[in-house]
Hints:
There is one protein chain. The protein has 121 residues and is mainly α. The protein is built from 6 helices and 3 strands; from the N terminus they run αβααββααα. The longest helix has 31 residues, at 90-120.
Amino acid sequence: MLEPSHNNELPVIPGKRYFTIGEVADLCAVKAHVLRYWEQEFPQLSPVKRRGNRRYYQRADVLTIRQIRSLLYDQGYTIGGAKQKLSGSEIKEDASQYKQLIRQMITELEEVLSVLNTSAK
Length: 121
C-alpha cells in the first residue's frame, strides 16, 4: 500500500460510505480526469454510477486509488507495471488495505479520546 512515510501526506479518509469524484481527488491528491483515466486502465476501480452518470466511490476504491498513486508516483511504476503488480497481489492488497484501515481507525479513536479527555477536565 502506501509507504509509512507517505501516509501523513494524504488526508485521513472520513467515515463516509460514498465519496464524490471531487472528494476522492482531494483525498488522493490527483485530479478528477486522472481518476477517470485510471478507471479505464485498472479493472479494480469501478465506482458506483448513479443519476446523470455521477461516480460514487467507496472506501475500498479510495484505498485502491491511493495504492495506484503510490505505485505510479512514488515507486515509479508504469501503468502496465502497476496493473501487473495490482493483479498479482490482490490477496496481499486486501491485507494491506485492512492494515491501513486499522491504522486509520486507531488514529481516529485517539482523536476522539483526546477530545473526550479535554472536555472531561
